[in-house]
Specification:
The protein has 263 residues and is α/β, with parallel strands linked by helices. It has ten helices and eleven strands. Strands 1, 4, 5, 6, 7, 8, 9, 10 and 11 form a nine-stranded mixed beta sheet that branches. Strands 2-3 form a two-stranded antiparallel ribbon. The two termini are 25 Å apart.
Length: 263
């Protein structure tokens, strides 16, 4: 089966509570959003677009040869911005679009390709994402490390900030998943990259928020609540962390200064 063409859209919002003007933060001489786009351009995507809410982001992208389109400034989420971008681009309903977050300058191009390919391998799933095995008890307990449990077909059963799945009778903090991995029960860390069929992007934007989504503050639970399946690509390699804080930004700057982002 040959790979299907897909589009990458990178939603970018100028405001950020923890890191003001985050998309324009300099990383080795280029704005962060441009660094993200450069990673996406190394994937097999047919086209890469930044969907921005501010003229400054559009100008910065265009200055570096990155395609960008203006979107409304009042969107409540990146998914809403993605829906507007798909409409502006005129993508057909069956087109595959990958949402790469604008604060992921270390995103692996191969992971983008793998998440896009889920839409071809899982014909009945309108949405896909990724995960990798959790390696430490600290990460398993950390509510900022979102966990996902899969079913037998490689689809998400549930996402949670809680440590799931729970091994009844296991020692607290014990690395029980080392034995459970062979059974496919090792806990998985969800990676915030998504693929969609473009028609479902519009559907998702119209769905009412789910109670579970509001409790966990995890937007992807809206799809599961309303009965839509999410395929999950499991990679053995943990991706580079995104940029949420000034400390994250300095860490990424140091990586680029030492020779650039990893392949």
């Amino acid at each position: 089966m040959s790979a299907a063409a897909f589009t990458v859209v990178i939603p970018a919002r100028l405001a950020s509570s923890r890191l003001p003007r985050k998309p324009l933060a300099d990383i080795a001489g280029k704005p962060m959003v441009v660094r993200v786009a450069e990673r996406a351009l190394q994937s097999a995507a047919a086209q890469v677009w930044v969907a921005a809410d501010a003229p400054e982001i559009i100008d910065a992208c265009q200055a570096h040869g990155v395609q960008a389109l203006p979107t409304r400034a009042d969107h409540a989420s990146g998914s809403d911005r993605l829906a507007e971008a798909c409409a502006l681009l005129g993508l057909p309903e069956d087109a595959v679009v990958v949402n790469v977050q604008g604060d992921e300058p270390l995103m692996a191009p191969g992971l983008i390709d793998a998440v896009a390919a889920l839409m071809q391998r899982h014909a009945h799933c309108p949405m896909g994402t990724a995960a990798h095995p959790i390696a430490s008890a600290a990460d398993f307990a950390n509510p900022n490390v979102v966990k996902v449990v899969l079913d037998a077909r490689g689809r998400a059963s549930y996402f949670s900030r809680a440590p799931i799945p729970h091994a009844r009778g296991a020692q607290p903090g014990g690395a029980w998943w080392q034995d459970a991995a062979a059974a496919g029960l090792a806990p998985l860390h969800h990676i915030g990259i998504y693929s969609y069929r473009a028609g479902f992007v519009q559907t998702f934007a119209r769905l009412a928020p789910a109670p579970t989504e509001q409790l966990e503050q995890l937007e992807q639970l809206r799809a599961l609540w309303h009965g839509h399946a999410i395929a999950v690509h499991v990679t053995t390699t943990a991706p580079g962390a995104g940029v949420d804080t000034p400390q994250d930004l300095e860490r990424v700057r140091a990586l680029f200064a030492a020779g650039g982002a990893p392949a």
